[in-house]
Amino acid sequence: MAKISLIVNGNPVKDNIDPRTLLVQFLRENLRLTGTHVGCDTSQCGACVVHLDGKAVKSCTTLAVMADGHEIRTIEGLAADGAPLHPMQEAFREHHGLQCGFCTPGMIMTAVDMVHRKGHDLSDHTIREELEGNLCRCTGYQNIVLSIAAGAKAMANSDLA
Amino acid sequence: MYDFKYHRPATVRQAANLLLKNEDAKVIAGGHTLLPVMKQRLASPPHLVDLSHIEGLDGIEMKGRSLVIGATARHADVASSAIVGEAIPALAELAGLIGDPAVRHRGTIGGSLANNDPTADYPAACLALGATIVTNKRRLKPEEFFQGLFTTALASDEIITRVMFPVPKKAAYVKFRNQASRYALVGVFVAKRPSDVRVAVTGAGSEGVFRVTAFEEALKKRFSHKMLDGLTVPAQGLNSDLHGSAEYRAHLIAVLARRAVEAATGKA
Ligand SMILES: Cc1cc2nc3c(=O)[nH]c(=O)nc-3n(C[C@H](O)[C@H](O)[C@H](O)COP(=O)(O)OP(=O)(O)OC[C@H]3O[C@@H](n4cnc5c(N)ncnc54)[C@H](O)[C@@H]3O)c2cc1C
Ligand code: FES
Ligand code: FES
């Protein structure tokens, strides 16, 4: 077993875990944060994307012990319960950026990371390049790209980062 | 995934001792090759030695005329480093073409070289630029280091600590992506060095990364894409799979080499 202590969505968390626990398993099964999804077994779909120290990573390809001492942010950490949605979530709702919603948490966490690195004015080309590691089997991407462009702009005028 | 014991050394020496003491122990850096393989139960190291807490192993700096990149430098850090962008922009570009943003936030140069995937990008840069791969035991030239598919000269208790790239006069990397995996279907790295020209190809060789000496000779006379007119690469010995035949890959090598020279001369 391995002792870990980390910050998840702003809250300190301590646990004693089997070292093989993947970060995504730890989030879903130990912390019951089931917004982060698992969509593949090959590290390719991006449904599991969370932020590790502010950077988008695939939590299915990271051991929970490797997150020890670090800070994790999941889709649940974007906006407080009951509070208005984060501007990127709101943009996906407004622009129909989802159908079944399975890929959406990963899309949104990737999109927020994209804004942090590339700014608020994102071209379609940049968004499509940056979505390289996120697969959606429903939408055909068009509305996801629209949502991210709008969400990026909205984040410029929001207190939520 | 099978069970393992997790170790977190603070120094390279401690890490090497752990490898020596524990049979079949493996280091883990970004985990972006090793963890997928362990999940599939194709690898089952009983001990994992995590390099990510070793301080100073991920540095990027100029030392004389060489760019020195620490083994645990992540692809995203190399891609966005001002030092790399200034010294060898082609290398920064290459790092920015690996996988996707999330992969680049975790994967490391040391892990990529140690893995020597025949479709990986960094091996082409090392071979074309004539890099020196430095380990806790010795210094290796790429020709000695890369030894065929997923095989390197590394001993079981040997750890890559840094990679030294001599700064070329001109260089460029052109990658034709496999649309599904995002690895290189074919990638060509061209470097005009003070003493010679090197053309290294990844993705195509059945023994991994290799040089095209016929192209190098021609480009040494004059570094222009026109020098490659009419030159081809034999399909014999190239990979043939559902993604592309050996003939197709041979064709791509010639096309991408031209584009790489054009890119390198355009940027001069
Ligand atoms: C979806 C996806 C897409 C990808 N696309 C590409 C691509 O387009 N191009 C590309 O080149 N790669 C690609 N990769 C691979 C990626 O670049 C990996 O990060 C890299 O190959 C391995 O680096 P790592 O740090 O993750 O190594 P790990 O997975 O931690 O380790 C890999 C191997 O190297 C050994 N090792 C690690 N560090 C050292 C060291 N310092 N000394 C000695 N041995 C060491 C480990 O023991 C292990 O055997 C992709 C990966 C994924 C998951
Ligand atoms: S579940 Fe992580 S990439 Fe698919
Ligand atoms: S909305 Fe269904 S997978 Fe993207």
Description:
The complex is a heterodimer of chains A (161) and B (268). Chain A is 33% helix and 16% strand. Chain A is an alpha+beta fold. Chain A has 2 domains: 2-77, Roll (Ubiquitin-like (UB roll)), CATH 3.10.20.30; 87-156, DNA polymerase, domain 1 (Orthogonal Bundle), CATH 1.10.150.120. In chain A, strands 2-1-5-3-4 form a 5-stranded mixed β-sheet, covered by helices on one side. In chain A, strand 3 (49-52) and strand 4 (55-58) form a beta hairpin. Chain B is an alpha+beta fold and 268 residues long. Chain B has 3 domains: 5-49, Uridine Diphospho-n-acetylenolpyruvylglucosamine Reductase, domain 2 (2-Layer Sandwich), CATH 3.30.43; 60-166, Uridine Diphospho-n-acetylenolpyruvylglucosamine Reductase, domain 3 (2-Layer Sandwich); 170-264, Enolase-like, domain 1 (2-Layer Sandwich), CATH 3.30.390.50. In chain B, 33% of the residues lie in helices and 21% in strands. In chain B, the strands form 3 sheets. In chain B, strands 4-5-8-6-7 form a 5-stranded antiparallel β-sheet. In chain B, strands 9-10-11-12 form a 4-stranded antiparallel β-sheet, with helices on both faces. In chain B, strand 2 (26-28), helix 2 (34-39) and strand 3 form a beta-alpha-beta unit. At the A-B interface, strand 4 and helix 3 of A face helix 2 and helix 6 of B. The structure holds flavin-adenine dinucleotide and FE2/S2 (inorganic) cluster (2 copies). Residues 98-103, 136-139 of chain A line the site of one FE2/S2 (inorganic) cluster (FES).
